[in-house]
């Protein structure tokens, strides 16, 4: 344990500072496909009864019309966040007529690419922009890849905690810059250690055989309808043969916020020849927003992002440039198909401890080959993380995954203890013990349990997933929401539809001008 890490632990353990740990903010975004009763992708429009996918604050769509996304409000309590997520699931489940929420991350049996419906957001300029952006994703990466679902975990430490750290470490920069620099340091450590999350929580070792559309692969056949890797933890986070695109060479720098912003700004303003050949329009119809490496900054598929809540009409890069980093969004988490919400309190508590560890631990700059070894470690774990005797690269040393994982859990233990002292009880310590058991016994990991369940029941991936989806639907529908909560969601739905209608009634200028202004907004950041 380094001197700085020990000093920070002691500082947060002080009686005056300990309560700050109860003010961390959490938010969860859970994506899930809608499927019909036979486990096929629902081709129906986004249910109007759920509200407008464009303007609803908690129920929207991601890539496809059939890919729902549930967004919780932020809360200081993990339990409250999960309660909010459960309320959304219960409301949606009771409104889906003959349809289910698909339980795992990897998609159901999909129709041909042309048939997969791209999400639509109405006729307003912003609604059309979101649709054209998704058309561009289809051109660049294919529709099939966009049907993968995941869980995004949003987390922030209270600003008062950053101020306490700054008082004892560095008074030479503004509070905003201190906070941003330390969130970027957190992200560097996340890059170093996120392989551990894939081992502990990866839950996609298998997929429907049709997913790869005949592309070459190195997966093995589980049965007639299922492909898998015997020691995989998260095929969702593997390359799956989809690395032949402009993003393959894009590696934003996480050594400081300015260079991160600059690398993304350059990507959204630099033409990419294969996309230039396609063009932005064909016969007057928009195909993609532009022909650059990225259409917009959110197109970059990163495992974690620095974030700042944006104002209306503001782009993410603009928000980060103007006001610095406010929170991080961890994006590499699989949906656990055994859990109705895809995540539970034990996982969330460990994520808190893990992210705080990444924030407090020393975080030297990523230099030389370390970036590459971080990526290689991550990819090795998602493909073969449960392989006995698997080694990873820790600096210049090759180490057993099992040994390194145990060492990391020991380092995280004091943070779990601090969180338990702050919140009362021993829930964080119990979560840590559950993770230790997974390291000691790989058969207890979600990825191993998925394969064991499929073998025990003689089920294909899709049959297993559909059974879980039906069981979860029964649980959600067995206990209906209170009249008050039901009315709340019905009001949100009605208000969102009214808000979309208002946007469509009052367009300003034409769509081409709107897109041009949106693209130009990034150019003002050159040289910032």
UniProtKB/TrEMBL annotation:
InterPro entries listed in its UniProt record: Gln_synth/guanido_kin_cat_dom, Glu_cys_ligase, Glut_cys_ligase
A molecular-function term among this protein's GO annotations: glutamate-cysteine ligase activity
Top EC category: ligase
Enzyme Commission code: 6.3.2.2
A Pfam cross-reference name: Glu_cys_ligase
Keywords for this protein: ATP-binding, Glutathione biosynthesis, Ligase, Nucleotide-binding
Catalysed reactions, as listed in the record: L-cysteine + L-glutamate + ATP = gamma-L-glutamyl-L-cysteine + ADP + phosphate + H(+)
NCBIfam families, alphabetized: glu_cys_ligase
Similarity-based family: Belongs to the glutamate--cysteine ligase type 1 family. Type 1 subfamily.
Name of the featured protein: Glutamate--cysteine ligase
């Amino acid at each position: 344990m380094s001197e700085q890490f020990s000093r920070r632990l002691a500082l947060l353990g002080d009686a005056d500072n300990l309560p700050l740990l109860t003010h961390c903010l959490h938010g969860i975004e859970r994506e899930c496909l809608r499927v019909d009763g036979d486990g096929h992708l629902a081709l129906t429009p986004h249910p109007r009864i759920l509200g407008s996918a464009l303007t609803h604050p908690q129920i929207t769509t991601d890539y496809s019309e059939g890919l729902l996304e549930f967004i919780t409000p932020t809360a200081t309590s993990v339990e409250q966040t999960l309660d909010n997520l459960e309320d959304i699931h219960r409301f949606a489940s009771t409104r889906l007529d003959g349809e289910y929420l698909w339980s795992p991350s990897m998609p159901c049996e999909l129709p041909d690419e042309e048939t997969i419906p791209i999400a639509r957001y109405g006729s307003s300029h912003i609604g059309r922009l979101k649709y054209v952006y998704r058309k561009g994703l289809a051109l660049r990466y294919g529709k099939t890849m966009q049907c993968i679902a995941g869980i995004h975990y949003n987390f922030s430490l209270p600003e008062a905690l950053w101020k306490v750290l700054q008082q004892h470490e560095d008074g030479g920069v503004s509070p905003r810059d201190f906070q941003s620099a330390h969130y970027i340091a957190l992200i560097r450590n996340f890059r170093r250690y996120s392989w551990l999350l894939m081992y502990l929580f990866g839950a996609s070792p298998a997929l429907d055989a049709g997913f790869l559309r005949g592309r070459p692969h190195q997966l093995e056949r589980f049965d007639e309808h299922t492909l898998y890797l015997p020691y995989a933890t998260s095929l969702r986070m593997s390359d799956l043969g989809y690395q032949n695109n402009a993003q393959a060479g894009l590696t934003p720098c996480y050594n400081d916020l300015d260079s991160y912003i600059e690398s993304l700004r350059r990507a959204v303003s630099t033409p990419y020849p294969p996309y230039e050949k396609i063009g932005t329009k064909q016969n007057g119809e928009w195909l993609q927003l532009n022909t650059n490496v990225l259409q917009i900054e959110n197109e970059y598929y990163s495992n974690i992002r620095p974030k700042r809540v944006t104002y209306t009409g503001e782009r993410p890069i603009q928000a980060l440039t103007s006001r610095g980093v406010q929170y991080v969004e961890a994006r590499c988490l699989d949906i656990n198909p055994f859990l109705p919400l895809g995540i539970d309190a034990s996982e969330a508590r460990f994520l808190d401890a893990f992210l705080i560890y990444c924030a407090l631990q020393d975080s030297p700059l990523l230099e030389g080959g370390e970036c590459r070894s971080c990526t290689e470690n991550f990819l090795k774990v998602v493909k073969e993380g449960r392989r006995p005797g698997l080694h990873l690269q820790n600096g210049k040393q090759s180490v057993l995954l099992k040994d390194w994982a145990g060492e990391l859990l020991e380092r995280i233990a004091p943070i779990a203890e601090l969180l338990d002292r702050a919140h009362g009880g021993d829930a964080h310590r119990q979560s840590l013990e559950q993770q230790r058991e997974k390291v000691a016994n790989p058969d207890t990991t979600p990825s191993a349990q998925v394969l064991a369940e499929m073998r025990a029941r003689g089920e294909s991936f899709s049959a297993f997933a559909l059974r879980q989806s039906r069981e979860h639907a029964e649980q959600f529908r067995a206990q209906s929401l209170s009249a008050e909560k039901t009315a709340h969601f019905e009001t949100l739905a009605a208000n969102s539809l009214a808000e979309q209608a208002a946007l469509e009634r009052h367009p300003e200028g034409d769509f081409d001008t709107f897109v041009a202004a949106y693209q130009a907004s990034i150019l003002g950041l050159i040289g910032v």
